[in-house]
Every structure is written in structure tokens, then in C-alpha cells.
From TrEMBL, chain A:
It comes from the Bacteria. Pfam families: DUF5981. Residues 42-131 form the Methylene-tetrahydrofolate reductase C-terminal-like domain. InterPro entries: DUF5981 (IPR022026). It comes from Billgrantia campisalis. This is Methylene-tetrahydrofolate reductase C-terminal-like domain-containing protein.
TrEMBL record, chain B:
InterPro entries: FAD-linked_oxidoreductase-like (IPR029041), Mehydrof_redctse-like (IPR003171). PANTHER family: METHYLENETETRAHYDROFOLATE REDUCTASE, METHYLENETETRAHYDROFOLATE REDUCTASE (NADPH). Pathway: Amino-acid biosynthesis; L-methionine biosynthesis via de novo pathway; One-carbon metabolism; tetrahydrofolate interconversion. This is Methylenetetrahydrofolate reductase. The keyword Transport does not apply. Its cofactor is FAD.
Amino acid sequence: MYKVRRWVVRHARLFEWVYRSFEPLLVKLHPLWRRIGYERAEAPVKAIEKGVKGLLFDCQMCGQCALSTTGMSCPMNCPKNLRNGPCGGVRADGHCEVKPEMRCVWVEAWEGSRRMKYGDRIQVVQQPVDFRLKDSSSWLRVVRKLADQPRECADSGAVK
Amino acid sequence: MKFDDEPVPGYSLPILPGHVSPGRLERVLRAGKFAITSEIDPPDSADPAEVLKRAAIFDGYVDAINATDGSGAHCHMSSVGVCSLLTRVGYATILQISCRDRNRIAMQGEILGAAAMGACNLLCLTGDGVQAGDHPQAKPVFDLDSMSLLEIARGMRDECRFQSGRKIDMPPRIFLGAAENPFVPPLEWRPHRLAKKVAAGAQFIQTQYCFDIPRLRDFMLKVGDLGLLEGPDRVFILPGIGPLASARSARWIRENVPGVHIPDAVVKRLEGAKDQKEEGKRLCMDLLNEIREIPGVSGAHIMAYRQEHTVAEIIETTGILEGRVPWYPGRDNPSELNPESPEAQPEALEPVQG
């Protein structure tokens, strides 16, 4: 929902904190995921992720969440699916070139990032989307990766 | 043996140390000269002569010609087609490639093809949305964004690899460019976004139309503070300018062309003029004169859509090239003239008396 996702960006710092607390919790559950089997856990976790992130961020389930680097504004809501910042068509009032009724996702992202503790991660170049991962759980993928590389986990901050 | 009707070849210059491309644009910029680029409005036609005719207008005035890629999401001759025709007679071209219409497989193939045809410069763009053009029912692709495209193109050139990691035998020797719009929100982020593009591989930047000098000055100052204008990995910035046809057209552009910021003062100046078209040209010259004085600016990109003939006058009057005559086919050797250049038209074509 548009209103909810704008509210989330206004409270980007809170959500950053929530995510940074939530992630280690998920990682701690690694033995559980392994016992269930990541493949079997995929469907229920994906459903929960889709429900929660769909409500809060209008998540499109790209499967490679970048919210912590985009000021808590989901880049997949940009009609051009830009992952690295705004295009040159942003209107003077900060609205989208393609959807004039919508605030530019990246204008929102910049404002959100300014509120976040690690907001400067918005300056890092993001990799292009891997379309094979669409409609898969970003949470499980990240948890699995972090559980396998515990050292990287400590360095990487709130990767989701 | 040399045939008399041998076609004029496109030239490739040796790549100098510290350069990445065999092109003239990189040479001019790295030599510290004020570079001028302009763009061709690609024809809605399969006629090669039309492309050469449109390029001949710029003979002796520009260092490279942009071939737009479905600009404004309208269908025209492809940028690779235009570049290929132009490089055949030796013009320096800037291949524009937009993420709107192709996925990464097509774009990487196109980069190789264009480089093989002699294009030495690549401008990586996101592209206008399809809603802006004549095919709003088309599928917007946007598989990559301009940043990823830059990174992939750099990988192709410097690491000889496709994004997949597969090896490229002979890499494309291309000078990499990107666009920036310092005049629209989020203004505060724009210099940082430029830094991001430079980190992704951008070596030159062409900006959206500039009608607001204070905003450009502010932007350039911040870009300088970020250290992007020094060192071997510096970026060359060419602000975009162009003549406005009238106050009415300025207002129309402001409201209908995404991303063009025209301050009220500019519209008023045009409104107050007797000859608005002439005033639009004057305004463009004034902007050019102001832009050249801004520290860190390396050149200008003149976009004179449907007023291409004014480019020569704008450059002559401002004296921006300081006597320099950029290369064009036939500059040094009249036998190499662009066959569609007015100078190359054979006299036999004139009506015969009697």
C-alpha cells in the first residue's frame, strides 16, 4: 500500500533497527531451517515474507532484497526497476515521470537513507537483478549464506 | 592496387598510453581541449544518405556525434545503424544505448557489434519510459539499469568478459559515458549519484539540457569536492545545451518532456523578445559562454533538435573552439568528403543549360 510504504520510509531508522535485530534471530534458527530442509521451509517462509513485506514495502518478491541500501523504499516499485538511483526524469515536485501520481521511489529512498544509521550504503553500486530468484524468499537465501560464512555476517551489517 | 571508386574508409587512431579507445573524443578531452558534441536526429527511414546528410551539418564543428537510441521512446533508425554508417566515412560517434528496449544478452552483443563497426564511445542510458513515446503499448524491458550497464561494459573492455564470465577474444575499445541530470530532484544526491556512475565505469558525462547556471555551478562544485575531476580516473563533464524555438515551446517542453528544468526567467526572456527564435539562439550562446567559465567543465553537448543548422552559428559566434577545427571527412583530404556534404555534390547535378 502506497500510504504504508511512505510511512515506513518516514520511519526508516526504526525499520533498519528492526531488521538488524531480526536478521541474527533468523540466522540463529539456521539449525532449525536445516532440519526442516531449506527447500521445504521455502514455501511457508516465502508466504510470510510476502505478506509482511508486501504490506510494509509493496514488496515485489524479487528475491534479492536491497531495502537496507535503499532507504527502506523498494526499488522494484520504480517503473523502470532501477536499482541504483533515480533516472533523469524525476518531476520538479519529486514525483515519477511514468506514474505522475506516485512520489519517485528514489526520492523517497534518498530521504529514508538520510534517516538511517547505515544509510550511506545507498552510495554502493548494486548488482543487476538475477531474475531466477524472483518469487523466492530473500530471507532464507541471506540466512543460508550468512550461516555458511559467519565472518562475513559480522561485517556486512543489515543485509537482508 | 587502388581502385578509383574505393570507398572512403573509417579511421581508427592508435590508442595512446592512458587512453582506452582509438577515438577522437577521448583524445580531445584528455588533451584538455573544450570538446563539442552534438546529436543526430535519426531518420524514420532506411535511407543511408539521409544519415550522412544529417551528419554533414556538423562538419568542422563537433568532436563527436551522438546517435540517439529510440529517444523519447519513439521508434527511429537504430543507433548502431546510424553509428555504422557514420564510422564508415570516419566520423567519431557516440553510441547511445538505452536499457528500455533490450535485455543484457542483446545489449552486450550490440556493444561488440558497434565497436567492431568503429564506434569508440558508448553512452549508457536508462531510457525514457515507453509511455512517453509512440508505442506506449510496448513492453518496457529494463533488465539492467544504466549503472549495471556501465559496469558490464567496463568488464567487457577491461576484463574481456561478458557478465556471465565467459571470455571475449577481442574486447570492445570503448570510452564509457553516462548521463546525469543535475537539475531535478533529489538535487542533494545528484553529485553522489554521479560518483556512483564513475565508480561503475563512467569516464564522460553528458547532462540533460541546462537552463539554470547556478544549479550547474553548485553541482560542479560538489562534484569537484568529491574528487571526481582529478587523477587518471577523472570524469569529463559536458553539460547539455540547446536553442529554444519560442516561449511557447519552452513551456511545452517544461510540461511534457520529462526531466527538463526551465526556470521562469528563461521563459520570460523569450517572451519579451521581438524575434523569439533568434533570442532562443542568443540564450543558448549566453549559456555556452557561462558554462565554459565554470571550473571543471570539459565541453558541451549541443542538442538542437530540429534546429541542427544553428549549431554552426552557435559555435562560430561564441568562438568556443578557439580556432580549432574538429576532424571531419575531407578536412585534410578533399577526396574523403562525406558524399552527402554540400561541398561534395558534383556540379554535373546542376541543371544543364539548353
